[in-house]
# Entry
Amino acid sequence: MSSAESYVVQHGSGFVNEYARHDETDNPNHLLGSFPCLFPYVSYEAHAKWAMQYADKRFRKDFHFMFQVFRVIQKHQVCRSAVLQVQKKAFQDNEMSFHRLTADDLSLAGRQEAKKETISNPVIHALKKHLTAIRVNVVGTDESRINIRAYIWGMTVLRNPPSLWVTINPTNTHNPIVQVFAGEEIDLDLFDRTAGPDSAQRAKIVADDPYTAAKFFHFIVRVIFEELMGITVC
# Structure
């Protein structure tokens, strides 16, 4: 056996396919090669959701896992959205113009945008509209947040403005519910504020398990909506 063959992880210049495949030469899921100690599961999104909820918390406490799966999920959403966008007539009408764009055209548009000037090339204007339409369907992008805000304002027009504007910002490091979600033995029925982990340990627990902090936030918001406002959240 050569020295290269003796390594468990071998380096190469080829890109890893992030889509599932089922031939005899490749892994059906690239996560199996990236995380051999973790167990692959059905579709990519379902696998990620299942893994983050796994009982022993091995997935959500892995330093790299959640960042890798989120990045790949975003790329999948981009691809799905792009496929739908290129099938629209508006894109097909401009397709040949897009092919004629050069690197100089894009550089000029970039400089104009950096100076907050109007982009002079109408083809790049059209291209930006299509890119924006694609990014709307990708979680975490500016366009998706703008779309959500537009939906909120649309509901305001349809249902009239709300009588109360409130910002819900529950603290996670000092709330015992977070510690219970993280697996700490705390009796909330017979709660003793002097018992349990101290402030530094509580902060470490939340930092080690960010999924628990996100779960706590959604739990609190859902309870406020359902119990205080009578709004059932799907």
Summary: The chain is about 55% helix and 0% strand. The CA atoms of residues 60 and 66 lie 6 Å apart. The first helix runs from residue 30 to 34.
